Amino acid sequence: MGKLDGKVAVITGATSGMALAGAKLFVDEGAYVFITGRRQNAVDEAVALIGRNVTGVQADSANLDDLNRLFETVKKEKGSIDVLWASAGGGVPSRLGEITEEQFDAAFTLNARGTLFTVQKALPLLNDGGSILMTGSNASLRGYPEWSVYAAAKAVLPAFARVWVAELRDRKIRVNVLTPGSVETPMMGDSLTAEMKTMFASVIPRREMGRPEEIATAALFLASDDSSYINGMELVADGGTTVI
User: In which domain, by residue range, is 130 found?
Assistant: First the structure.
């Protein structure tokens, strides 16, 4: 038996990296998974890679109309949701004194506003006893130069979780934040210089970045009944970066 047998999961921003690895693992563990991405060709490629028990929906989590269409598709095809992983997010580095309004607005619109409305719009479809997880970042726990806006946009997620736990307790819906450290993903490859990658790896005790599959197993834990007594927590999976 799989840990998610018969479950329906929705994972946003799952066309690459950690969330894609998680979608593959969720399917292997028995779930039917809906994934999203901003580019249709990337969605199609991810669906082909996963291969079964998956529906791809082109959607930008910063766009509320796209979120409406996503959950209309889920309702039509499956009717309800057991696991929601709001993983869509991202940011670009910018040093204090050089931050633009556009950078600030983009970071908070996707990471904070987009996550909130992903959860809110999913709520009518979420089964009682379900699991919500959101992807945070250890940038919000550690002072990485040039990442203040991204860090701040991610820092709101644990606050969301604490309040939503109280609001959803009668439905026994758990809400947690999965906070990875530096992980070798296409997004990291696109946004970091070689010098920055070396810097990020240098502060990890094992001196190498995480792998998407390592975050996927942590997500599976939070999605499954293995974490039935874990609620309102921030699970930091960063190889020990923030404790030394």
Answer: 8-237
